[in-house]
Amino acid sequence: MLQLLLNVISSVILVSSSYALENLGTFGKTYPILEEDILEKIKREAIIPRFSSDYFEGILRRSLYVDYHVPNALRDRIREKKVVYTVPIDIVIDGKVIARKGERIDVLKRVKIPVTYIVVKDYQLPAFVDYAEKDNVTYLVVQGNIYELEKKYPGLRIYAAVPKVLKVLGIERVPSIVYQSGDRLIIIEKAWLGESAK
In terms of residue numbers, what domain contains 75? Predict the structure, then answer.
């Protein structure tokens, strides 16, 4: 009896899991579609906007403005910082655990930073332009318009600073010069007592 019940259940499952489509025909009166095809109407009536290059340049200029409210350095100061990463979960590659959860990795013992970072506000950058001639420099701007700076200094690598990078580099005040020495970052804050903005 149990076997018969199982056979019936499995048959019902097999039949219900398969289906077929069948045209059941048309029943009742049908009417023609009176409305216009919406896609055809959109194609016919859509107005392609015409924007000037000034319009796009204005959007670009506004979108490339940054302001992270990093205070100016009031005195010269040199600090050192170790960059230590705590692994949040086990990292497994090809079945092999390469780092355990909670393990602390001294990043700068394993990674070399090949550039010197100069972290500035837009009006501070001119005072540090000649550093690019002496060293492999990347400028990180915490306040100002990246677009305008790139136009003014086309030969320099200028990027918008982001909060996570500022935290890793240990930026507290600007202008700051950051480079790697052994397993540490050296952060040199330069006093900025000149003009605060243009």
Answer: 67-82+110-189
- Residue 78 lies inside a defined structural domain of this protein: yes
Report the largest interatomic distance among the alpha carbons of the chain, rounded to a whole angstrom: 97
Q: Which residues contact 129 (CB under 8 A, 6 or more apart)?
A: 153, 156
Number of structural domains found in the chain: 1
In this structure, are residues 196 and 72 in contact, taking their beta carbons and an 8 Å threshold?
yes
Per the CB < 8 A criterion, the answer to whether 175 and 120 are in contact is yes
* Burial (0-12, 13-18, 19+ Cβ within 10 Å), 87: middle
Tell me the backbone φ, ψ of residue 189, rounded to 5 degrees: -95, 130
What are the pLDDT digits (tens) for 83-126? Answer: 888 888 888 888 888 888 998 988 888 889 999 999 999 999 99
AA letter at 193:
L
Confirm whether 62 is domain-assigned.
no
Q: Is the pTM of this model over 0.70?
A: no
| Concatenated DSSP letters of the chain | -HHHHHHHHHHHHHHHH----------S------SPPHHHHHHHHPPPP---HHHHHHHHHHHTEEE--PPBPSS-EEEEE--EEE-SS-EEETTEEEE-TT-EEEHHHH----SEEEEEETTTGGGGTTHHHHS-EEEEEEEEEHHHHHHH-TTS-EEE--HHHHHHHT--SBSEEEEEETTEEEEEE----S-S--
